[in-house]
Amino acid sequence: MTLLKKLQWSFGLLLFFFVLPVIAGQLPFNKQASTPIKEPEDKPVVFAATNLPEQSVLEQTKEETEEVTKEVTKDPFKVLLVFTHSQESYQPMVQAVSGKAAVYDEKTNIFNLKDTISKHFSMNGIQTDVLDVDVMKELKRQKKTFPAAYNVVRPYLAKRLQEQSYDLVIDLHRDSAKKNATTITHNNESYARIAIVIGAEHKNYRWNTAYAESLSATMNEIVPKISRGVISKSGDNVDGRYNQDLTKEMILIEIGGIDNTEEELNRTIAVIGKAIAKSFVTEKQE
Q1: Could you identify which of 90, 111, 128, 245 might form a hypothetical disulfide with 118, taking C-beta atoms 3.0 to 4.6 angstroms apart as the criterion?
Q2: Which element (helix H / strand E) includes 230?
Q3: CA-closest candidate to residue 83, choices 129, 47, 42
Q4: What whole-number distance in Å separates Cα of residue 274 and Cα of residue 191?
């Protein structure tokens, strides 16, 4: 063999061993051996990560809907109107109807204001009931005198309070004071002033006083000095209870005096309705 052929044979042998690994790497069985296929693991599929936000939103929406429903279905603020001195009258109103100036009248009197009061209260979200008893007529029927009025109305009021609950009970009266004490002007309009009377000789005294003071203060925020304040009464020659011992939510309001006009009374009734809503209705709904 010549030297040239020996060199060619040696070079070819070396080239074969050099390319052999490359060729082997391309064969199928070697590829499977070097990169084995893993069997899938038998694990449960978990969707919590994607479902939780949706569930939270649904639960939150449900809670909000329930809250709205509760707001809609809340019991309304309920007021009971009582007229112990049902035939107390205002001279201008009686005179306009009958031509006479009287401070007591069987037909034109404070009891006739019940519809006006109910209307204004309703405009402020207040449900109003009336203890529909003409106490003055009942006094005559029972042949009793004027001072017995609170005792005459008491069983009617007690029965109503046993049958139904109220957020506020108002016994409405007319003061005997003259116009200069019971009238105030605000923004060029005149109003009948009010006074709130609380009997101080019973267990609910402090509760009744708290309601009275809150209402009085709120009314004065709406129309300055429209309320003459809260008057506590006890001792000789006064009732001392005014049936306020029957419920801690009861107050007595004297609205205007003998000289106040219907227009002045109507304006004040509107203020009372707004003040009740501001003082008590909003607080109940919160």
Answers
A1: 128
A2: strand 227-233
A3: 129
A4: 15
